[in-house]
Amino acid sequence: MMKLSMAIVLFAGLGASAQTPKLLHRFEGLPEIVNFNSTSVCNLRCIMCFQAYHPGKDTMPMEQARSVLDQLLPTAKKLMLTTAGEPIAGPFRELVDITRKYECKLDVTTNATGLTPARLQYMVGILDHLAISLDSHLEDVLDHMRGKGVHARIMTNLRDVGEYLAGKTRS
Q: Nearest-CA neighbor of 32 among 125, 120, 107?
């Protein structure tokens, strides 16, 4: 199993005239914020995205993702699921479970085509930031950029999530 570590080494005298740099201090540790991309798969082919021309096909095997996260998350405060692919299209529930296990916060950026009240509910307690990637509020513009019917699907999902949140705040 590959072990991950990060070291920051501070040196004095690294200028052009320096003979031998002097070690000032060595910090070792792991990051507090982890940007993690477990999939290159995306359900859209947006005209401005590389996915339109070279669609992603790979998802990191969960065993490998678990191994990496089991090493990084014990010291982390936040896991950020990044968007070289659509995070919700990958092994989303498993990543949420691992994040919860280590009591980290979760940031998710999504195109919202797969965002549902059930998925939002599954993140309750750890979700710190949910970013929705939209290019326009205009249906014809968004559908031109992301595909026919995408605007309607996103608006339906956002309405459903909004109704779920409104009901949750009343209780």
A: 107
